[in-house]
Amino acid sequence: MRDFRFEKAMLTFVRCTPALAIAVGLIFALETVPAARAQVRIDVSKITCKQFVDREVGDPRDIAIWLSGYYHGKRGETTFDKVKLVNEYAKEVRDYCIRNPQTFVMQAVETLIERTR
Question: How much is the pTM?
Answer without folding.
Answer: 0.63
